[in-house]
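Re: the request from the purification team.
They wanted to know what the chain is likely to look like in 3D before they choose a buffer screen. I agreed to run a prediction and write the result into the notebook, where they can find it.
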Amino acid sequence: MKDKKSIIIYFSRADENYAVGYIEKGNTEVIAEYIRDLTGADMFKVERKEPYAKDYQTCIEEAQVEQNNNERPELLHTLESIDEYEVIYIGSPVWWGILPQPMVTQLEKLNFEGKTVRVFTTHEGSGLGSIPSQIKRICKGANVLEDGLAIRGSTVNNSKNRVEDWV
């Protein structure tokens, strides 16, 4: 897959995170950068226009309301097209077993017909959760590969070899 034009679409949150405390760069972003370094893929960071609260408890309360109401939060920037790409890496933390709502907002705007999709997550015990099946529903027409990568957020800084083996 390294020779195919690819992009990494990811959501990542810094600030206070579960099990790791305050961090300057989100766990998923660290993994996305490893993938970029190995593949040369372009990157697109999905960002909520109004950032989540910096403290963990308030953030999860905000995110839970979004998920319970199936909201589509406004994004800071929107990726309009993935037409030029063959392989799409989709990465996010696992929130209650599924994608954070900003990722849903972004992915629903894109045409995945004929694209190869590889899924990666960061988590603290959820693995991939239901994210691969959720991505299959959202990314209609994509070939979502079954070999998803799940990395514990508390171990991202020691996971470069696992990412390399997966890529």
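For the purification team: The mean pLDDT is 96.
Please add any questions underneath this entry.
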